Amino acid sequence: MSLDGDPRLPVTNDDRVEIFGSLWRQTLRTPVTPPLDSLQLEPYFSYYTSECNLAMQAGSGRFAAIRTHKDIIRIAKDLGEHQTKQDAQTKLRGELKQPRSQEETEDMLEGSLTLVARLLTMVDVGPRLYVSDEPSVRWDDKGSSLKDLLTEKFSPSPSFIPEVVELDEELTINNLRRFAGLEIEWTDNLADHLRLSKGRKRISIFHHASYLKCQCSELLPPGLAEETLRTLGLLFPSHDKPTRKW
After folding, report:
1. Compositional bias (Basic and acidic residues) at which positions (predicted)?
2. Contacts of 21 (CB under 8 A, 6+ apart)
3. What angle do CA 13, 19, 22 make, to 5 degrees?
């Protein structure tokens, strides 16, 4: 088994196990197949490959110092240890081998860290220097860690203290479509889960349930993965026949 492969290429089943174990310090002790299929990891690795292609191909590789899965895992380890962005960039700068201008170096460091941050958390962390769209979460404070960034993003406003409420079991996605006219927009961005689009009757649904079930990272705020899974269970109940097609 080798993780020296190109992250832009489809990930083999064997490498999926090792990547998951390395990114989230969790060992999948079951055989590779069919249990991996039952975990439905394909959607996550489709996202993984797509993000790597976007970052590594932009500017002929100018925005990423990443060339292998091992590079991703190495940076992920630093971010998982709650290093500040500045410290992680300093360490990565020392690993660059080819001479570059200061601007090229800074772009490469920025692109590498934000790419791995997205792969770790499935949150659209930016800035993305190679696209014009604004990311959901900008990591501009170099004195903060990735954990700090996500804690701030997902913490409720001090003026908003939610009450414990019982959610209606009839609040399924099928009923939202029928009675509220909402359409689903699947999203790979956890920060967009349950976001209603302005001017359009669309609700964004983060659909990576297997990713959430495998989460044992301390980067996400406590309870976020579980809360997101509960909303998915509410919207897509297994006992609701009209909803099963989703």
Report:
1. 83-103
2. 27, 28
3. 145
Write the pLDDT tens digit of every residue in 84-109. 999 999 999 999 988 889 999 999 99
Do residues 235 and 204 make contact, with C-beta atoms less than 8 angstroms apart? no
Tokens 């939610």 sit on residue: 162
CA angle 68, 70, 73 (to 5 degrees): 120
Angstrom distance (rounded) from CA 184 to CA 177: 8
The amino acid present at 136, given as its one-letter code, is S
Of 173, 190, 180, 183, nearest in space to 227 by CA: 190
Length of the chain: 246
| Per-residue buried b or exposed e for 78-95, using 16+ beta carbons within 10 Å of the residue's own CB | bbbeebbbeebbeebeee
pLDDT digits (tens, 9 = 90+) for 135-169: 789 999 999 999 999 999 998 654 444 444 444 56
DSSP 54-84: HHHHGGGGTT----SHHHHHHHHHHHHTT-B
Which pTM value belongs to this model?
A: 0.86
Kind plus residue range of the DSSP H or E element containing 202: strand 202-206
Task: Tell me the torsion sign for CA atoms 52, 89, 17, 67.
Answer: positive
